[in-house]
Amino acid sequence: MSRTDQLTLVAFMQASNVSVYSGSWRYPSAAADYLDIRYYQRIARTLEDGGFDLLFFDDRLAMPSIYGDSPAEAIRYGARPIKLDLTAVLGAVAASTQHIGLGATYSTTYYPPFHVARTFATLDHLSRGRAAWNVVTSVNDTEAQNYGLDEHFPHDKRYDRAEEFIEVVSKLWDSWEDDAILNDRQQGIFADPDKVHELDHQGEYFTVRGPLTVPRTPQGRPVIIQAGQSGRGQQFAAKWADLIFTADPSQEIAQEHYKQQKQLIDDAGRDAATVRLLPMVYTIVGETEAIAKEKELIFLNELVHPMASLTLLSEVTNYDFAGHSLDDLVTDELIAQVSGIRGLVQGVRRHVGSAKLTLRTLANHRATLLQGPRFVGTGPQVAEQMGQWFQSHSCDGFVLAATHFPGAFEDFVRLVVPELRARGLVRSEYTGDTLRENLGLERPRNLFTETTDA
Q1: At what angle do helices 231-240 and 155-173 cross, to 10 degrees?
Q2: Which helix (DSSP H) or strand (DSSP E) does residue 454 occupy?
Q3: For the segment 115-139, what is each residue's pLDDT rounded down to a tens digit?
Q4: Closest of 274, 168, 180, 174 to residue 217, by C-alpha
Q5: Which of 99, 241, 415, 447 is least crowded, fewest Cβ atoms below 10 Å from its Cβ?
Q6: Cα 171–172–173 angle (5° rounding)?
């Protein structure tokens, strides 16, 4: 399968008081009805009008509470203290849309494989084939403490568990063969038991009997999303992911990352052309360039409180920065002391250059995710920038983050999508019935059928 000639567009969502930009609740035109399901339905319909392939929801299983061993600062400054349950949100969004893919983040560390397999198989059926699972291993001790553990598992152990977890989930999704249901009312035979398989999986981390209580889904298996940035994470994504989310601060770095990740996919025995690499970007669009730049100034200036930034830095690194000043330098000693900070520091340094890096700068980049590309301008200008990235093999599309909800997506669909469509880079209408079909991905073969055929 060759690389598609159109951009893959994914919207980065939060079931929260904020977008991924943690100051978005303060944006002058931000909507405040995020506890009303109609808020998410409105956004989803806007994205579907724009031909987006997928909207997916990020998630955490705890408030940011590592800083000062307390959630107080996250609550005080609105630093992502709210995370609604995604099952209910996506069910309602599925009912209000027809075509757009529906993705959710679920942890391989704190949920059982059977639960995840059943959740996404159910969503795939009820949405008629639009489900996607963003596979994460979770990030910090607070999440562990909400699930009965004292501390988070070490990095490599999390990925060891994730490998076995996704193998089990894949087998559960395949435990019903496609033609297992006979529905023979005359003979009184509902399904063929020879085509519904127990797993009897007994592994290092999981024991799962099966079969799944949900038949095989319209997509065969939901689409798999992954965003691992470490070496282990990139290997995991190469083996399992259909969509890989990246965070590259420049086009030059993105092009190199693109080549490296595609080679890893080839090395894993998969067709690299079928796996999409999608950097996260902000688009700030205006009817004129001056309006766009004015919006950018609002976005960049003072909407994220410095303490909110430090709180979120503590969350992602699983390290309490309460004993540090915002003006402390990020030294080699600190990097060695804080697990998980090295990759973040490297990404921010690529963005800010060789200047001395303070915790203030590092924390602000984490709270705003500024280390990715930012396309600013009129609709034609932003469309031109996106097209140039795509056509130079820097990416296969984009994960669009919002400066605020719902206006950032409304501006993009109103001003940029018509320009992308005029360039042939975005669909004018959906042609497939499922998310896999709209992405140009083949329906996976059933593991049990392959075994039988062999």
Answers
A1: 10
A2: none
A3: 999 999 999 999 999 999 999 998 7
A4: 174
A5: 447
A6: 90
What contacts 273, CB < 8 A, 6 or more positions away? 1, 2, 3
Residues 6+ apart with CB under 8 A from 128: 218, 433, 434
Question: How far is CA 1 from its chain centroid?
Answer: 24
Residues 299-342: tens digit of each pLDDT? 877 788 888 888 988 988 889 999 898 888 888 888 888 876 77
Closest CA to 173 of 227, 216, 141: 216
pTM tops 0.70: yes
Pick one of 3.40.718.10, 3.20.20.30, 3.30.1360.10, 1.10.10.10 as the CATH number of 8-296+370-453.
3.20.20.30
Residues 6 or more apart whose CB falls under 8 angstroms from that of 114 comprise 172, 208, 210, 212
**Binning pLDDT at 50, 70 and 90, where does residue 1 land?**
very low
Nearest 5°: the CA angle 92, 97, 102 is 70
Are 204 and 164 spatial neighbours (Cβ–Cβ below 8 Å)?
Answer: yes
Is residue 112 reached through a cis peptide bond, with omega within 30 degrees of 0 on the bond before it? no
- Work out whether the CA dihedral 220, 449, 178, 166 comes out positive or negative: negative
8 Å CB contact between 210 and 219? no
Alpha helices in 275-326 (DSSP H): 289-300, 306-317
Two tokens, residue 55: 């909207």
